Amino acid sequence: MKIIVTIKQVPEANKVAVNPKTGTLIREEVESILNPFCEYALDMAVNLKIQNPDLKVEIIVISMGPPQAKSALLRCLELGADKAYLFSDRAFAGSDVWATSLTLKEGILKKIGNFDLILAGKQAIDGDTAQVPAELAENLGIPHVYYGFDVEIVKKRINVKKETEKGYQVIEVRLPALVTISKGPSSIRRLPSMRDIIEARKKPIEIIDAKSLNMSEKRIGLNGSFTQVVKIFSPPIKEAGEIIDGNDSVNAAEKLFMFLKEKKIV
Amino acid sequence: MLQINVENCTGCKICEQACPYGAIIIDPETKKAKVLDNCTLCGSCINVCRYKALSIKRVMIPLENLKNFKGIIIWGELENKNGQLQFKKVVYELLGKALELNKEINEPISVVVLGPPRISALIDELFYYGADIVYLCEHELLQEFSNDGYTTVLTTIIIDKKPSIVLYGATIKGRELAPRIAARLNLGLTADCTGLSINKQKQLVQTRPAFGGNIMASILSPYTRPQMATVRPNTFSKIKLKQPKKCQIEKISVKLEKQSIRTKIIEEISSKTELINIEDADILISVGRGIGSKENIKLIYELAQELKGIVSSSRALVELGWTKHPIQVGQSGKTVSPQLYIALGISGAIQHLVGMQTSDIIVAINSDPEAPIFKVADFGIIGDLFEIIPQFLKLCRKNKESSL
């Protein structure tokens, strides 16, 4: 059984901000990390591999990004993936959701071929769009289930526990299918061992450019994107609030009461 | 690709600081800007360059070709509240926004309602909030939401009606449905918008937060119609009209086959205690690790009852098993934006802040003066919540008695 995990390397979100005075981005040594939700998806794949030894699960991680994204793929190999592909080319730059999903689709069809399951993180913490997985599923012509937190393989189908607004549903879907993962299986959270790290360096990471995917320039990168970012700016700054000392609890409670009264809440 | 006009570049390094990916540097030899391989063409550097040294070539297609598309369509998402179907609040909020956008484009506003047979009684309300037309599609197979079923029907309607704009609530369902439709129709789509406006070229300007709310981006879909966006709930206000609009209902009949819906709900578990979705609450009383023990959460419920609010929680308590995931606020939980958010014993890690910082009023009580939650609070108390809350409850009760 082939499980594909789509991953993204992201800058650590809390370190990116806009200087409200100059309108420029402040970047204090932004570190790139494997998007945490993608790591959950990978953990889910590893869990499935452990639980179903007879299925001979092969875990293939794929990503689209700059050459540096290789380090995120390497981490996946350390955490239990078997093989990795990085779709990387200057011509892919500027891809929006549509162009990204199209490139991933071509990559999967040309490099991997048949597969049984695609797992993706529920969203990336830099863009937060959560749109690429559904577009990828549609472009591949397979069904998708979002916000899964448990996946069980039952013959040619899977049962996915999916978060809903008030609890959860169990969704049955025939394979091949795509599932996005919102929470990892807690049993599997761990750091790679020295042995994992050494083993990972023997596993293959193949870097693939636009030419080998045989995609025309019009369909990739900025040219192939339907949306365009026209402006980036700082969110309106919130005025600093009133912070008081609560040692005198009666006084503090009174002040809170007055504050909420002013806002017509009490 | 990013083009650098070397003659204009002064080597001032502003672009270097502006790039979120570290993809542009000033070459130490030439003292001019240089693009690296990891440039994503996001455009952050172009806005900040004072010397017009940076540009990205973007192709535009003539606007005339897009003029055949007219009207705003809103997906009328239904929810089951205590056994009764009703529209989600965000549907009314989208109608409110559509009325506002219409001051610039003046096109009909319609709502698409999909559901099981005999739901037509629900739709009258929509005409009070700005709908001109309701497209109603009733079918047994639309009883339960499914990506396959809903995508099929909505795409059929969009192709037929040719709207210029389609809006969805950025709800759990909206966020998985909209991209499926966008991909099927080859359309641009912007996720989780917090701002929508119309520019001089009559394009929809879609503004959304990125990088956990630390930056905002305005996005256009210049080549594709309709322009599609999902919109964060609790962002826009609903507007009730004095006179309802003239009812115009168009029934849509579709052919749907059971086999074409590839997912099947085999079990549905709703947590009984938390029937109210925290995303819809006007007042949230949110509790974190500072509460100390599971038993102490009683105090929070007491406060919630007094303020007519709903209890929500930080991730820490969900992980301890003291609260349930459906009430978790933050990156791995829900994004909320109530009128009032009271954070009790929550330090405010960035993952929590991104889930609540757009709330109208934020109140925080925490014993740690360095807690990041105070940075977003409108009113904060550095102190012991177990002393302050009981005092506050006393005041509320006294106030009630005196006003009787």
Question: Can you walk through the features of this model?
Answer:
The complex is a heterodimer of chains A (266) and B (404). Chain A is an alpha/beta fold. Chain A has seven helices and 15 strands. Chain A has one domain (2-219): HUPs (Rossmann fold, 3-Layer(aba) Sandwich), CATH 3.40.50. Helices cover 28% and strands 30% of the residues of chain A. In chain A, β6 (58-64), α2 and β7 form a beta-alpha-beta unit. Chain B is α/β, with parallel strands linked by helices and 404 residues long. Chain B has three domains: 2-56, Alpha-Beta Plaits (2-Layer Sandwich); 64-260, Rossmann fold (3-Layer(aba) Sandwich), CATH 3.40.50; 278-403, TPP-binding domain (Rossmann fold), CATH 3.40.50.1220. In chain B, 26% of the residues lie in helices and 26% in strands. β15 (242-245) of chain A pairs parallel with β22 of chain B, so a sheet runs across the interface.
Keyphrases for this structure?
heterodimer; A: 266 residues; alpha/beta; Rossmann fold; nine-stranded mixed beta sheet; two-stranded antiparallel ribbon; globular; B: 404 residues; Alpha-Beta Plaits; 3 domains; seven-stranded parallel beta sheet; five-stranded parallel beta sheet; 11 helices; 22 strands
User: Considering DSSP H and I runs of 4 or more, what fraction of the residues of chain A is helical?
Assistant: 25-40%
Q: Which series of helices and strands of chain A comes N to C? A: EEEEEHEHEHEHEEEEHEHEEH
Helix content of chain B: 25-40%
Shape of chain A: globular
- What is the helix tally of chain B? 11
CATH names the topology of the largest domain in chain B as: Rossmann fold
Structural class of chain B: alpha/beta
Helix run count of chain A:
7
- Please outline the major beta sheet of chain A: 9 strands, mixed
* CATH architectural name of chain A: 3-Layer(aba) Sandwich
Q: Which two protein chains have the largest interface (Cβ within 8 Å of the partner's Cβ), and how many residues from each? A: A-B, 97 and 111 residues
